[in-house]
Design brief:
40% strand
Length: 104
Amino acid sequence: MSWQSYVDELMGSGHFDSVVIFGVEGDVFAKSPSSFAVAQDENHAFRDQFNSTAKKELLIAGEKYLVQLSTPKAIYGNKSGGGFLAVKTNQCKCKQEFLILIIV
């Protein structure tokens, strides 16, 4: 299954507003039609948050979300009217870590 097929499957569930899969260096590998751009500084903030348990604000496409829980593999955050889940994975043959970001 390709990354784009995985994104399409997630979006087809009707549970998510947007999904994007990008490398830890910021390269986008798959995204939903309703997706957004993740700025390089936003990407770096996500990468740093995986290594921190401190609750702080993260920006996604310029919108502030409050981190509710952060682990080495997942970050959960919310804002009024929605939230996000970011999961770090290395499930590809290229041995690069990817971030899967889901907006609900």
